[in-house]
Amino acid sequence: MNLVSYWAFKLLDFYLAVRFKRSFHDVKIDLSKIENKIVLDRPIVLIANHSSWWDGFFAYQIFKKLNTDQKFKIVMLESELQKRPFFRLCGAVGLIPKDRSHNLKIFHELKNHFVCFFPQGELTPQNLRPLVFKPGVNTLIQTLHPVQILSAAFYIEPFRFMNPTALIKVGSVQLSQVDQDYSVSLAEVTEKHLDDISCDWVKNLYRLENTPWKA
C-alpha cells in the first residue's frame, strides 16, 4: 500500500467511526458461520445484497473484522466512481456496463485481493423477493478462481431507537465447479441470510426491547 492510500484509509476509518456513531444505534456483524472455515491468506470474494448507501462501508467493516492478508477492493459502476474519486484511493474499481473488455481487465486486476461485489447491480429494497443476481458474478468468480466465496446479507431495522440498527450476517459458499451459472444459487444463499435476519435475529432483538442491549 502506498502512502497516499494508507492515509486515505486512515481518513475513511475516522469518517466511518463518526458517521456510524451518528447514524446508527448499533452495527452488529455475525461472523459465527465462517469461524474456522476460511483461510485468511487466500483471496476472498464477498457477495452481498445492495439496498442502501451504506453497503460498501458495511463490506469494509467485514474486511477489517476478518483481518485478512489481502488488500480491500470493492466493485462499483465507473459512472458512480467518477463522482467520488476519493474511493479509488480506498480500493474501489469501476465497471462499465456492456463493455466486456474493460470489465474483464478490471476483474483480472482483482486477483489475490479481498473483493466486494454487489451482483444485483443496483439498489433494491431489502425486503424484495426474489433476489436477482446478474450473470457478471459468474465472470468474476471464473476469472478469480480459485477463490473463497463469502455471502453477506445487509439488513437495517429501526427497532425502538431513534437511529436504526444495521444487522450483517456472513456465511461461506462452496462451489463444486466454476463453469456453471451460479448467479441463482448465490442469490438464494444471500436471500436465506436476509430471511434469517428478519425472521430470527430481529425477533430475538425485539424480545430484548426492554433491556439496554448493545453489540
- Report helical residue fraction: 25-40%
Structural class by secondary-structure content: alpha/beta
One letter per element, helices H and strands E, the order comes to: HEEHEHEHEHEEH
| Mean pLDDT over the residues | 92
Major β-sheet, in short? 7 strands, mixed
CATH superfamily: Glycerol-3-phosphate (1)-acyltransferase
Instruction: Indicate the proportion of strand residues.
Output: 15-25%
Distance between the termini: 31 Å
Count of separate DSSP helical elements = 6
Polypeptide structure, described:
- The chain is an alpha/beta fold and 215 residues long.
- It has a single domain, classed as Glycerol-3-phosphate (1)-acyltransferase, CATH 3.40.1130.
- Helices cover 39% and strands 20% of the residues.
- The chain has helices spanning 3-23, 55-66, 78-83, 100-109, 136-144, 183-207; strands at 26-30, 44-48, 72-77, 92-95, 114-117, 148-157, 165-173.
- A seven-stranded mixed beta sheet has the order 1-7-6-2-5-3-4, sandwiched between helices.
- β3, α3 (78-83) and β4 form a beta-alpha-beta unit.
- The model has no long low-confidence stretch (mean pLDDT 92).
